Amino acid sequence: GAPDTVSATGRGGGGAADVRAQNGGYLTTAQGARLPDSDHSLKAGPRGPVLLQDHHLREKITHFDHERIPERVVHARGAAAHGVFRGYGTAGAVTRAAFLAEGVETPVFVRFSTVLGSRGSADTVRDTRGFATKFYTTDGVFDLVGNNIPVFFIQDAIKFPDVVHAAKPHPDREIPQAQSAHDTFWDFVSLHTEATHHTLWNMSDRGIPRSYRMMEGFGVHTFRLVNAEGASALVKFHWKPRLGVHSLVWEEAQLIAGMDPDFHRRDLADAIEAGALPQWELGIQTFPDSPEQTFQGIDLLDPTKIVPEELAPVQPVGLMTLTANPTNFFAETEQVAFHPGHLVPGIDITDDPLLSGRLFSYLDTQITRLGGPNFAQIPINRTHAPVNDMLRDGFHQDAVHGGVAPYKPNSLDGGCPFFAGGTEHAYIEHPTPIAAASKVREAPASFADHFTQPRLFWLSLTSVEQQHVIAAYTFELSKVYEPAIRERTLGVLANVDPTLCAEVAAGLGLPTPEPTVALPQAEPSPALSQLGAEWPAE
Ligand code: HEM
User: Which location does the Swiss-Prot or TrEMBL entry give for the cross-link 3'-histidyl-3-tyrosine (His-Tyr) (predicted)?
Assistant: First the structure.
Protein backbone atom coordinates (compact mmCIF):
# COMPACT_ATOMS: atom_id res chain seq x y z
CA GLY A 1 0.00 0.00 0.00
CA ALA A 2 2.13 3.05 0.66
CA PRO A 3 2.37 5.25 -2.40
CA ASP A 4 6.06 5.18 -3.18
CA THR A 5 6.34 3.83 -6.70
CA VAL A 6 7.47 5.92 -9.60
CA SER A 7 6.12 5.70 -13.12
CA ALA A 8 8.03 6.23 -16.31
CA THR A 9 5.29 8.35 -17.84
CA GLY A 10 4.53 10.47 -14.84
CA ARG A 11 0.82 9.86 -15.29
CA GLY A 12 -0.99 7.79 -12.78
CA GLY A 13 2.11 6.13 -11.47
CA GLY A 14 2.70 7.96 -8.26
CA GLY A 15 0.37 6.22 -5.89
CA ALA A 16 0.40 2.46 -6.20
CA ALA A 17 -3.34 2.01 -6.72
CA ASP A 18 -4.96 0.21 -3.82
CA VAL A 19 -5.97 -3.17 -5.26
CA ARG A 20 -8.91 -3.30 -2.89
CA ALA A 21 -10.41 -0.30 -4.66
CA GLN A 22 -11.02 -1.78 -8.12
CA ASN A 23 -10.61 -5.46 -8.83
CA GLY A 24 -12.15 -8.27 -10.85
CA GLY A 25 -13.54 -8.35 -14.35
CA TYR A 26 -17.13 -7.29 -13.73
CA LEU A 27 -18.98 -4.34 -12.27
CA THR A 28 -20.10 -5.20 -8.75
CA THR A 29 -21.83 -3.65 -5.76
CA ALA A 30 -19.66 -2.54 -2.85
CA GLN A 31 -20.31 -6.00 -1.43
CA GLY A 32 -18.87 -7.69 -4.50
CA ALA A 33 -22.13 -8.96 -6.01
CA ARG A 34 -21.77 -8.92 -9.84
CA LEU A 35 -24.15 -6.60 -11.68
CA PRO A 36 -25.71 -7.04 -15.11
CA ASP A 37 -26.94 -3.43 -15.46
CA SER A 38 -26.22 -0.04 -13.91
CA ASP A 39 -28.29 2.16 -16.22
CA HIS A 40 -31.85 1.24 -15.26
CA SER A 41 -33.60 1.44 -11.88
CA LEU A 42 -35.78 -1.45 -10.83
CA LYS A 43 -39.39 -0.50 -11.63
CA ALA A 44 -42.87 -1.94 -11.48
CA GLY A 45 -43.12 -2.18 -15.28
CA PRO A 46 -41.24 -0.01 -17.80
CA ARG A 47 -43.49 3.02 -17.10
CA GLY A 48 -44.20 2.22 -13.46
CA PRO A 49 -42.81 3.60 -10.17
CA VAL A 50 -39.22 2.90 -9.05
CA LEU A 51 -39.00 0.27 -6.31
CA LEU A 52 -37.34 1.03 -2.97
CA GLN A 53 -36.03 -2.54 -2.87
CA ASP A 54 -33.46 -1.73 -5.60
CA HIS A 55 -30.34 -2.03 -3.45
CA HIS A 56 -27.95 -1.16 -6.27
CA LEU A 57 -29.82 2.08 -7.02
CA ARG A 58 -29.85 3.11 -3.36
CA GLU A 59 -26.20 2.18 -2.80
CA LYS A 60 -25.04 4.03 -5.92
CA ILE A 61 -26.96 7.22 -5.17
CA THR A 62 -26.32 7.21 -1.44
CA HIS A 63 -22.58 6.94 -1.98
CA PHE A 64 -22.64 9.72 -4.56
CA ASP A 65 -24.60 11.91 -2.14
CA HIS A 66 -21.69 11.66 0.30
CA GLU A 67 -18.76 12.08 -2.11
CA ARG A 68 -17.80 15.56 -0.95
CA ILE A 69 -15.73 16.33 2.11
CA PRO A 70 -15.09 19.85 3.45
CA GLU A 71 -12.34 21.71 1.66
CA ARG A 72 -9.37 22.87 3.74
CA VAL A 73 -10.23 25.96 5.81
CA VAL A 74 -7.18 27.59 4.16
CA HIS A 75 -5.03 26.33 1.25
CA ALA A 76 -8.13 24.66 -0.24
CA ARG A 77 -6.86 24.72 -3.81
CA GLY A 78 -3.73 22.76 -4.54
CA ALA A 79 -1.84 20.44 -6.82
CA ALA A 80 0.61 17.75 -5.81
CA ALA A 81 3.22 15.28 -7.00
CA HIS A 82 5.29 12.35 -5.81
CA GLY A 83 9.04 12.46 -5.79
CA VAL A 84 12.24 11.52 -4.11
CA PHE A 85 14.62 13.41 -1.82
CA ARG A 86 18.33 12.54 -1.71
CA GLY A 87 20.46 13.76 1.17
CA TYR A 88 23.90 15.21 0.51
CA GLY A 89 25.24 14.37 3.97
CA THR A 90 26.29 18.00 4.45
CA ALA A 91 23.98 18.52 7.43
CA GLY A 92 25.61 15.74 9.47
CA ALA A 93 27.42 18.14 11.79
CA VAL A 94 24.16 19.79 12.89
CA THR A 95 21.53 17.05 12.75
CA ARG A 96 21.23 13.33 13.20
CA ALA A 97 18.15 13.25 10.92
CA ALA A 98 18.75 10.01 9.02
CA PHE A 99 17.12 11.13 5.77
CA LEU A 100 19.69 13.93 5.40
CA ALA A 101 22.63 11.49 5.47
CA GLU A 102 24.68 11.17 2.29
CA GLY A 103 22.96 9.27 -0.50
CA VAL A 104 19.86 8.33 1.49
CA GLU A 105 16.79 8.40 -0.77
CA THR A 106 13.42 9.17 0.79
CA PRO A 107 10.04 9.16 -1.01
CA VAL A 108 8.19 12.47 -0.77
CA PHE A 109 4.77 13.89 -1.61
CA VAL A 110 4.57 17.65 -2.22
CA ARG A 111 1.41 19.77 -2.31
CA PHE A 112 1.46 23.34 -3.63
CA SER A 113 -1.51 25.58 -2.95
CA THR A 114 -3.00 29.02 -2.93
CA VAL A 115 -4.10 30.15 0.51
CA LEU A 116 -7.37 31.99 0.19
CA GLY A 117 -9.35 30.76 -2.80
CA SER A 118 -11.78 27.88 -2.64
CA ARG A 119 -11.11 24.52 -4.31
CA GLY A 120 -12.40 25.75 -7.66
CA SER A 121 -10.64 29.13 -7.72
CA ALA A 122 -8.05 30.29 -10.25
CA ASP A 123 -4.37 29.46 -9.89
CA THR A 124 -2.77 32.76 -10.90
CA VAL A 125 -4.34 35.10 -8.33
CA ARG A 126 -2.15 37.34 -6.20
CA ASP A 127 -1.67 35.29 -3.03
CA THR A 128 0.86 33.44 -0.92
CA ARG A 129 1.53 29.86 -2.12
CA GLY A 130 1.78 26.84 0.17
CA PHE A 131 4.72 24.48 -0.32
CA ALA A 132 4.17 21.41 1.87
CA THR A 133 6.44 18.37 1.72
CA LYS A 134 5.85 15.00 3.34
CA PHE A 135 9.05 12.95 3.73
CA TYR A 136 8.30 9.22 4.26
CA THR A 137 11.53 8.59 6.21
CA THR A 138 12.57 5.32 7.85
CA ASP A 139 12.19 7.12 11.21
CA GLY A 140 8.61 8.16 10.52
CA VAL A 141 6.98 10.99 8.60
CA PHE A 142 8.61 14.43 8.58
CA ASP A 143 6.45 17.26 7.21
CA LEU A 144 7.98 20.57 6.15
CA VAL A 145 4.83 22.72 5.86
CA GLY A 146 6.08 25.95 4.33
CA ASN A 147 5.15 28.79 2.01
CA ASN A 148 6.75 30.55 -0.96
CA ILE A 149 7.15 33.69 1.18
CA PRO A 150 9.68 33.55 4.04
CA VAL A 151 7.65 35.55 6.58
CA PHE A 152 4.10 35.45 7.91
CA PHE A 153 1.37 38.04 8.53
CA ILE A 154 1.16 37.60 12.27
CA GLN A 155 3.45 36.75 15.17
CA ASP A 156 1.01 34.83 17.36
CA ALA A 157 -1.31 32.04 16.22
CA ILE A 158 -4.15 33.44 18.30
CA LYS A 159 -4.62 36.00 15.49
CA PHE A 160 -4.83 33.36 12.73
CA PRO A 161 -8.65 33.16 12.69
CA ASP A 162 -8.71 36.98 12.53
CA VAL A 163 -6.31 37.37 9.62
CA VAL A 164 -8.04 34.60 7.68
CA HIS A 165 -11.50 36.06 8.37
CA ALA A 166 -10.19 39.41 7.11
CA ALA A 167 -8.58 37.97 3.99
CA LYS A 168 -11.28 35.51 2.92
CA PRO A 169 -14.23 36.81 0.84
CA HIS A 170 -16.48 39.31 2.58
CA PRO A 171 -19.14 37.51 4.65
CA ASP A 172 -22.09 39.31 3.05
CA ARG A 173 -21.50 38.87 -0.69
CA GLU A 174 -18.65 36.36 -0.67
CA ILE A 175 -16.57 38.57 -2.97
CA PRO A 176 -13.74 38.44 -3.85
CA GLN A 177 -12.88 34.85 -4.44
CA ALA A 178 -9.17 35.21 -3.76
CA GLN A 179 -6.96 37.79 -2.19
CA SER A 180 -7.19 41.07 -3.96
CA ALA A 181 -8.08 44.42 -2.63
CA HIS A 182 -10.99 44.46 -0.33
CA ASP A 183 -11.69 46.47 2.75
CA THR A 184 -11.43 43.78 5.41
CA PHE A 185 -7.99 42.61 4.25
CA TRP A 186 -6.53 46.12 4.12
CA ASP A 187 -8.30 47.04 7.35
CA PHE A 188 -6.56 44.14 9.10
CA VAL A 189 -3.06 44.62 7.70
CA SER A 190 -3.08 48.37 8.33
CA LEU A 191 -4.22 47.86 11.94
CA HIS A 192 -1.81 44.95 12.59
CA THR A 193 1.37 46.42 11.18
CA GLU A 194 3.42 43.26 11.77
CA ALA A 195 1.69 42.15 8.54
CA THR A 196 3.57 44.81 6.54
CA HIS A 197 6.50 42.57 5.59
CA HIS A 198 4.38 39.66 4.32
CA THR A 199 2.00 42.03 2.53
CA LEU A 200 4.91 43.72 0.74
CA TRP A 201 6.09 40.32 -0.52
CA ASN A 202 2.51 39.63 -1.70
CA MET A 203 2.45 42.93 -3.59
CA SER A 204 5.79 42.09 -5.21
CA ASP A 205 6.21 39.68 -8.12
CA ARG A 206 6.50 36.85 -5.56
CA GLY A 207 2.71 37.07 -5.20
CA ILE A 208 2.14 35.93 -8.81
CA PRO A 209 4.55 33.05 -9.53
CA ARG A 210 5.05 31.83 -13.11
CA SER A 211 4.96 28.20 -12.06
CA TYR A 212 5.05 26.06 -8.95
CA ARG A 213 8.30 24.73 -10.42
CA MET A 214 9.83 28.20 -10.18
CA MET A 215 9.03 29.06 -6.58
CA GLU A 216 11.25 29.10 -3.54
CA GLY A 217 9.90 27.47 -0.42
CA PHE A 218 10.51 28.49 3.18
CA GLY A 219 9.91 26.75 6.50
CA VAL A 220 9.37 30.32 7.82
CA HIS A 221 9.84 29.52 11.53
CA THR A 222 13.19 28.85 13.08
CA PHE A 223 13.57 25.15 13.86
CA ARG A 224 16.07 23.41 16.12
CA LEU A 225 18.37 20.67 14.84
CA VAL A 226 20.09 18.22 17.18
CA ASN A 227 23.18 16.22 16.16
CA ALA A 228 24.42 12.79 17.20
CA GLU A 229 26.23 14.28 20.21
CA GLY A 230 23.09 16.04 21.38
CA ALA A 231 24.34 19.52 20.42
CA SER A 232 21.73 21.85 18.99
CA ALA A 233 21.64 24.58 16.35
CA LEU A 234 18.83 26.86 15.20
CA VAL A 235 17.94 26.74 11.50
CA LYS A 236 15.70 28.11 8.82
CA PHE A 237 14.76 25.80 5.92
CA HIS A 238 14.83 26.92 2.29
CA TRP A 239 13.83 25.23 -0.97
CA LYS A 240 15.71 26.63 -4.01
CA PRO A 241 14.21 25.72 -7.41
CA ARG A 242 16.68 24.50 -10.03
CA LEU A 243 14.72 26.50 -12.63
CA GLY A 244 15.23 29.76 -10.71
CA VAL A 245 12.51 32.08 -9.37
CA HIS A 246 10.20 33.52 -12.02
CA SER A 247 6.95 35.43 -11.89
CA LEU A 248 4.11 36.46 -14.13
CA VAL A 249 3.37 40.12 -14.71
CA TRP A 250 0.01 41.30 -13.41
CA GLU A 251 -1.66 41.56 -16.82
CA GLU A 252 -0.62 37.98 -17.64
CA ALA A 253 -1.86 36.75 -14.28
CA GLN A 254 -5.27 38.33 -14.83
CA LEU A 255 -5.65 37.05 -18.39
CA ILE A 256 -4.56 33.53 -17.47
CA ALA A 257 -6.94 33.44 -14.50
CA GLY A 258 -9.75 33.80 -17.02
CA MET A 259 -8.37 31.77 -19.90
CA ASP A 260 -6.86 28.86 -17.96
CA PRO A 261 -7.73 28.88 -14.25
CA ASP A 262 -5.83 25.57 -13.94
CA PHE A 263 -2.60 27.09 -15.29
CA HIS A 264 -0.32 26.09 -12.40
CA ARG A 265 -1.66 22.60 -11.85
CA ARG A 266 -1.56 21.92 -15.59
CA ASP A 267 2.01 23.24 -15.79
CA LEU A 268 3.13 20.94 -12.97
CA ALA A 269 1.41 17.82 -14.30
CA ASP A 270 2.47 18.45 -17.91
CA ALA A 271 6.11 19.01 -16.96
CA ILE A 272 6.27 15.77 -14.99
CA GLU A 273 4.47 13.82 -17.69
CA ALA A 274 6.90 15.19 -20.29
CA GLY A 275 9.87 14.11 -18.19
CA ALA A 276 10.95 17.68 -17.31
CA LEU A 277 11.17 16.69 -13.66
CA PRO A 278 11.10 19.70 -11.30
CA GLN A 279 13.91 19.91 -8.76
CA TRP A 280 14.63 21.90 -5.62
CA GLU A 281 17.66 21.92 -3.37
CA LEU A 282 16.87 21.92 0.32
CA GLY A 283 19.11 24.31 2.21
CA ILE A 284 19.54 25.52 5.76
CA GLN A 285 20.67 28.73 7.36
CA THR A 286 22.22 27.83 10.71
CA PHE A 287 22.53 29.96 13.83
CA PRO A 288 23.97 29.25 17.26
CA ASP A 289 21.34 28.01 19.74
CA SER A 290 22.06 30.87 22.10
CA PRO A 291 19.79 31.50 25.11
CA GLU A 292 18.45 34.74 23.59
CA GLN A 293 17.66 33.05 20.24
CA THR A 294 18.65 36.05 18.17
CA PHE A 295 21.13 36.35 15.32
CA GLN A 296 22.85 39.68 14.61
CA GLY A 297 20.04 41.47 16.40
CA ILE A 298 17.27 39.60 14.54
CA ASP A 299 14.78 37.76 16.76
CA LEU A 300 14.72 34.17 15.48
CA LEU A 301 11.36 33.50 17.17
CA ASP A 302 9.63 36.29 15.21
CA PRO A 303 8.06 34.79 12.04
CA THR A 304 7.77 38.23 10.42
CA LYS A 305 11.58 38.42 10.17
CA ILE A 306 14.08 36.82 7.81
CA VAL A 307 17.81 36.51 8.26
CA PRO A 308 19.41 37.94 5.10
CA GLU A 309 21.41 35.32 3.21
CA GLU A 310 24.36 37.72 3.24
CA LEU A 311 24.49 37.28 7.01
CA ALA A 312 23.85 33.52 7.03
CA PRO A 313 24.33 31.76 3.69
CA VAL A 314 21.95 28.95 2.73
CA GLN A 315 23.88 25.68 2.78
CA PRO A 316 22.52 22.93 0.48
CA VAL A 317 21.70 19.67 2.30
CA GLY A 318 19.82 17.64 -0.32
CA LEU A 319 17.99 17.52 -3.64
CA MET A 320 14.30 16.84 -4.27
CA THR A 321 13.03 15.64 -7.65
CA LEU A 322 9.32 15.36 -8.43
CA THR A 323 8.91 12.23 -10.51
CA ALA A 324 5.25 11.26 -10.79
CA ASN A 325 1.78 12.74 -10.85
CA PRO A 326 -0.86 11.46 -8.43
CA THR A 327 -2.99 8.54 -9.58
CA ASN A 328 -6.12 9.99 -8.00
CA PHE A 329 -6.60 13.62 -6.99
CA PHE A 330 -9.03 12.92 -4.17
CA ALA A 331 -7.20 9.97 -2.64
CA GLU A 332 -3.85 11.73 -2.61
CA THR A 333 -3.91 15.51 -3.16
CA GLU A 334 -7.16 16.08 -1.29
CA GLN A 335 -6.69 13.60 1.54
CA VAL A 336 -3.05 14.31 2.32
CA ALA A 337 -2.71 15.73 5.82
CA PHE A 338 0.41 17.71 6.68
CA HIS A 339 1.36 18.74 10.20
CA PRO A 340 4.29 20.89 11.38
CA GLY A 341 4.50 18.62 14.43
CA HIS A 342 5.35 15.54 12.34
CA LEU A 343 9.04 15.45 13.30
CA VAL A 344 11.82 12.87 13.17
CA PRO A 345 14.86 12.40 15.43
CA GLY A 346 17.29 15.28 14.85
CA ILE A 347 14.64 17.93 14.11
CA ASP A 348 12.81 19.83 16.82
CA ILE A 349 10.68 22.92 17.23
CA THR A 350 11.33 26.31 18.83
CA ASP A 351 9.07 28.52 20.93
CA ASP A 352 7.94 30.69 18.00
CA PRO A 353 4.37 31.44 19.19
CA LEU A 354 3.00 31.12 15.66
CA LEU A 355 4.46 27.63 15.36
CA SER A 356 3.03 26.64 18.74
CA GLY A 357 -0.49 27.42 17.55
CA ARG A 358 0.06 25.53 14.31
CA LEU A 359 1.04 22.44 16.30
CA PHE A 360 -2.50 22.42 17.67
CA SER A 361 -4.43 23.56 14.60
CA TYR A 362 -3.59 21.05 11.85
CA LEU A 363 -4.55 17.84 13.65
CA ASP A 364 -7.63 19.54 15.00
CA THR A 365 -8.91 20.67 11.59
CA GLN A 366 -8.07 17.34 9.96
CA ILE A 367 -10.30 15.47 12.41
CA THR A 368 -13.21 17.37 10.89
CA ARG A 369 -11.95 17.49 7.32
CA LEU A 370 -11.08 13.81 7.10
CA GLY A 371 -13.94 12.47 9.20
CA GLY A 372 -12.39 11.36 12.47
CA PRO A 373 -9.07 10.54 14.08
CA ASN A 374 -7.86 7.68 11.84
CA PHE A 375 -6.70 9.56 8.73
CA ALA A 376 -3.08 8.50 9.34
CA GLN A 377 -4.27 5.15 7.91
CA ILE A 378 -5.25 6.68 4.53
CA PRO A 379 -2.63 5.41 2.04
CA ILE A 380 -1.14 8.84 1.23
CA ASN A 381 -0.70 9.59 4.94
CA ARG A 382 0.76 6.21 5.98
CA THR A 383 4.26 6.26 7.36
CA HIS A 384 6.82 3.89 5.83
CA ALA A 385 8.13 3.11 9.33
CA PRO A 386 6.60 0.35 11.45
CA VAL A 387 3.69 1.57 13.59
CA ASN A 388 3.08 0.26 17.08
CA ASP A 389 0.80 2.73 18.81
CA MET A 390 -1.99 2.49 21.34
CA LEU A 391 -4.49 4.47 19.26
CA ARG A 392 -7.66 2.39 18.93
CA ASP A 393 -11.12 2.42 17.37
CA GLY A 394 -12.79 5.62 16.09
CA PHE A 395 -14.47 6.45 12.78
CA HIS A 396 -12.94 4.79 9.70
CA GLN A 397 -10.74 2.42 11.68
CA ASP A 398 -8.99 0.33 9.03
CA ALA A 399 -6.74 -1.77 11.26
CA VAL A 400 -7.64 -5.02 13.02
CA HIS A 401 -5.63 -4.70 16.20
CA GLY A 402 -4.58 -7.85 18.01
CA GLY A 403 -4.01 -8.13 21.74
CA VAL A 404 -6.15 -7.16 24.69
CA ALA A 405 -4.05 -4.54 26.46
CA PRO A 406 -3.60 -1.29 24.52
CA TYR A 407 -1.73 0.41 27.34
CA LYS A 408 1.89 0.32 28.49
CA PRO A 409 3.31 -1.28 30.49
CA ASN A 410 1.01 -4.28 30.61
CA SER A 411 1.46 -7.83 31.76
CA LEU A 412 -0.89 -9.46 29.23
CA ASP A 413 0.29 -8.76 25.67
CA GLY A 414 4.02 -8.87 26.46
CA GLY A 415 6.78 -7.41 24.34
CA CYS A 416 7.01 -3.98 22.77
CA PRO A 417 8.98 -1.97 25.29
CA PHE A 418 9.68 1.71 24.82
CA PHE A 419 12.66 2.46 22.64
CA ALA A 420 15.63 2.67 24.99
CA GLY A 421 18.81 2.51 22.96
CA GLY A 422 20.82 5.23 21.27
CA THR A 423 19.61 8.69 20.45
CA GLU A 424 17.25 7.76 17.65
CA HIS A 425 13.98 8.62 19.37
CA ALA A 426 11.68 11.36 18.28
CA TYR A 427 10.18 13.84 20.72
CA ILE A 428 13.04 13.85 23.22
CA GLU A 429 13.00 17.59 23.28
CA HIS A 430 16.27 19.36 23.52
CA PRO A 431 16.59 20.50 27.14
CA THR A 432 16.22 24.20 26.40
CA PRO A 433 16.07 26.22 29.60
CA ILE A 434 12.91 28.24 30.19
CA ALA A 435 13.42 31.43 32.16
CA ALA A 436 11.35 31.72 35.32
CA ALA A 437 8.41 33.86 34.25
CA SER A 438 4.92 34.95 35.15
CA LYS A 439 1.99 34.18 32.88
CA VAL A 440 1.43 37.11 30.51
CA ARG A 441 -0.53 37.92 27.38
CA GLU A 442 2.09 40.03 25.64
CA ALA A 443 4.72 39.89 22.92
CA PRO A 444 8.43 40.44 23.52
CA ALA A 445 9.69 43.95 22.87
CA SER A 446 11.79 42.61 19.97
CA PHE A 447 8.57 41.79 18.06
CA ALA A 448 7.67 45.51 17.91
CA ASP A 449 9.84 46.49 14.94
CA HIS A 450 7.47 46.10 11.98
CA PHE A 451 9.23 48.26 9.38
CA THR A 452 12.99 47.59 9.23
CA GLN A 453 12.68 44.39 7.27
CA PRO A 454 9.93 45.51 4.88
CA ARG A 455 12.25 48.38 4.03
CA LEU A 456 15.14 45.93 3.58
CA PHE A 457 13.01 43.95 1.14
CA TRP A 458 11.88 47.08 -0.72
CA LEU A 459 15.48 48.30 -1.10
CA SER A 460 16.56 44.88 -2.37
CA LEU A 461 14.27 45.13 -5.41
CA THR A 462 15.32 46.39 -8.83
CA SER A 463 13.55 49.49 -10.10
CA VAL A 464 11.31 47.37 -12.38
CA GLU A 465 10.32 45.21 -9.43
CA GLN A 466 9.67 48.34 -7.36
CA GLN A 467 7.40 49.68 -10.11
CA HIS A 468 5.44 46.42 -9.96
CA VAL A 469 5.02 46.81 -6.19
CA ILE A 470 3.83 50.41 -6.59
CA ALA A 471 1.37 49.34 -9.29
CA ALA A 472 0.09 46.47 -7.15
CA TYR A 473 -0.55 48.63 -4.06
CA THR A 474 -2.16 51.32 -6.20
CA PHE A 475 -4.43 48.83 -7.96
CA GLU A 476 -5.42 46.95 -4.80
CA LEU A 477 -6.01 50.07 -2.69
CA SER A 478 -8.01 51.66 -5.48
CA LYS A 479 -10.57 48.90 -4.83
CA VAL A 480 -10.85 49.75 -1.12
CA TYR A 481 -14.15 51.49 -0.47
CA GLU A 482 -13.45 53.02 2.94
CA PRO A 483 -11.20 56.13 2.66
CA ALA A 484 -9.84 55.76 6.22
CA ILE A 485 -8.41 52.33 5.35
CA ARG A 486 -6.62 53.69 2.26
CA GLU A 487 -5.19 56.55 4.29
CA ARG A 488 -4.11 54.29 7.12
CA THR A 489 -2.36 52.00 4.63
CA LEU A 490 -0.50 54.97 3.16
CA GLY A 491 0.60 55.75 6.71
CA VAL A 492 2.05 52.23 6.92
CA LEU A 493 3.88 52.67 3.60
CA ALA A 494 5.32 55.99 4.83
CA ASN A 495 7.06 53.98 7.54
CA VAL A 496 8.54 51.64 4.92
CA ASP A 497 9.83 54.05 2.28
CA PRO A 498 9.01 57.65 1.25
CA THR A 499 9.18 56.93 -2.48
CA LEU A 500 6.92 53.89 -2.27
CA CYS A 501 4.43 55.88 -0.20
CA ALA A 502 4.53 58.97 -2.43
CA GLU A 503 4.09 56.98 -5.65
CA VAL A 504 1.13 54.98 -4.34
CA ALA A 505 -0.44 58.14 -2.85
CA ALA A 506 -0.04 59.92 -6.20
CA GLY A 507 -1.65 56.97 -7.97
CA LEU A 508 -4.62 57.18 -5.61
CA GLY A 509 -4.79 60.98 -5.78
CA LEU A 510 -4.18 61.29 -2.03
CA PRO A 511 -1.70 63.33 -0.02
CA THR A 512 1.54 61.65 1.13
CA PRO A 513 1.58 61.20 4.92
CA GLU A 514 4.68 61.63 7.08
CA PRO A 515 6.28 58.58 8.70
CA THR A 516 5.39 57.95 12.34
CA VAL A 517 8.56 56.00 13.10
CA ALA A 518 12.18 56.91 12.50
CA LEU A 519 13.05 55.22 9.20
CA PRO A 520 15.64 52.48 9.65
CA GLN A 521 17.88 54.51 7.36
CA ALA A 522 18.27 57.07 10.14
CA GLU A 523 18.81 54.44 12.83
CA PRO A 524 20.17 51.38 11.09
CA SER A 525 19.59 48.08 12.81
CA PRO A 526 22.70 45.91 13.27
CA ALA A 527 21.53 43.75 10.37
CA LEU A 528 21.01 46.67 8.03
CA SER A 529 24.29 48.38 8.83
CA GLN A 530 26.15 45.14 8.10
CA LEU A 531 24.55 44.84 4.70
CA GLY A 532 25.97 48.14 3.57
CA ALA A 533 26.07 48.55 -0.17
CA GLU A 534 24.79 45.08 -0.93
CA TRP A 535 21.20 46.30 -0.90
CA PRO A 536 21.27 49.15 -3.40
CA ALA A 537 18.44 51.67 -3.30
CA GLU A 538 17.63 52.12 -6.97
C1 HEM B 1 -2.85 24.59 5.81
C2 HEM B 1 1.46 26.77 5.69
C3 HEM B 1 0.31 29.34 9.60
C4 HEM B 1 -3.61 26.63 10.11
C5 HEM B 1 -1.59 24.98 5.42
C6 HEM B 1 -0.92 24.52 4.25
C7 HEM B 1 0.30 25.11 4.22
C8 HEM B 1 0.39 25.98 5.36
C9 HEM B 1 1.37 24.91 3.18
C10 HEM B 1 -1.48 23.57 3.21
C11 HEM B 1 -1.11 22.16 3.49
C12 HEM B 1 -1.61 21.27 2.39
O13 HEM B 1 -1.16 21.44 1.24
O14 HEM B 1 -2.46 20.41 2.68
C15 HEM B 1 1.50 27.66 6.73
C16 HEM B 1 2.64 28.47 7.07
C17 HEM B 1 2.32 29.21 8.15
C18 HEM B 1 0.97 28.84 8.51
C19 HEM B 1 3.96 28.45 6.32
C20 HEM B 1 3.12 30.21 8.92
C21 HEM B 1 4.41 30.24 8.94
C22 HEM B 1 -0.81 28.77 10.11
C23 HEM B 1 -1.37 29.09 11.40
C24 HEM B 1 -2.46 28.31 11.55
C25 HEM B 1 -2.60 27.52 10.35
C26 HEM B 1 -0.79 30.10 12.39
C27 HEM B 1 -3.43 28.22 12.69
C28 HEM B 1 -3.21 28.59 13.92
C29 HEM B 1 -3.75 25.89 8.96
C30 HEM B 1 -4.87 25.03 8.72
C31 HEM B 1 -4.64 24.43 7.48
C32 HEM B 1 -3.41 24.95 6.99
C33 HEM B 1 -6.04 24.79 9.67
C34 HEM B 1 -5.54 23.41 6.78
C35 HEM B 1 -4.95 22.05 7.05
C36 HEM B 1 -5.78 20.92 6.51
O37 HEM B 1 -7.00 21.07 6.31
O38 HEM B 1 -5.19 19.84 6.31
N39 HEM B 1 -0.78 25.88 6.09
N40 HEM B 1 0.51 27.89 7.62
N41 HEM B 1 -1.57 27.81 9.51
N42 HEM B 1 -2.90 25.86 7.91
FE43 HEM B 1 -1.17 26.82 7.80
Answer: 339-362
Q: Is 147 a catalytic residue?
A: yes
CA dist 494 and 492 (Å) reads 5
Q: Ligand 1, from 69, 72, 238: best to mutate by most atoms within 8 Å of Cβ?
A: 72
**Half-sphere CA count of 39, side-chain side, radius 13 A:** 0
74 CA to centre of ligand 1 in angstroms: 7
Q: What is the CA radius of gyration of the chain?
A: 26
Asked if residues 209 and 280 have their Cβ atoms less than 8 Å apart, the reply is no
Backbone φ, ψ for residue 127 (5° rounding): -170, 165
Q: Are 350 and 307 in contact (CB under 8 A)?
A: no
Q: Is 85 part of any known ligand binding site?
A: no
Nearby residues of 87 by Cβ (< 8 Å), 6 or more positions away = 99, 100, 101, 102, 103, 104, 106, 317, 318
Residues in contact with ligand 1 by the CB-under-6-Å rule are 72-75, 78, 111, 113, 130, 132, 145-147, 152, 157, 160, 220-221, 303, 336-338, 354, 357-358, 361-362, 365-366, 369
Lowest-pLDDT range of 67-76, 190-199, 303-312, 473-482? 473-482
Please report how many Cα atoms fall inside a 13 Å half-sphere around the Cα of residue 149, on the Cβ side: 30
- In the chain, DSSP finds a helix count (H) and a strand count (E) of 12, 12
The angle at the Cα of 355, spanning 349 to 361, to the nearest 5 degrees, equals: 120
| Cβ proximity of 230 and 423 under 8 Å | yes
Helix (H) or strand (E) holding 299: strand 298-299
Quick one: angle between helices 452-460 and 196-203, nearest 10?
Answer: 20
* Residue with the larger pLDDT of the pair 420 and 67: 67
CA 224 to CA 284: how far, in whole Å?
A: 11
Quickly list DSSP for 121-185.
Answer: S-TTSSS-EEEEEEEEETTEEEEEEEESSSS-S-SSGGGHHHHHHHHSPPTTT---SSSSS-HHH
Query: What ipTM describes this predicted complex?
Result: 0.96
Instruction: Decide if 192 is catalytic.
Output: no
Query: Which pTM does this prediction carry?
Result: 0.93
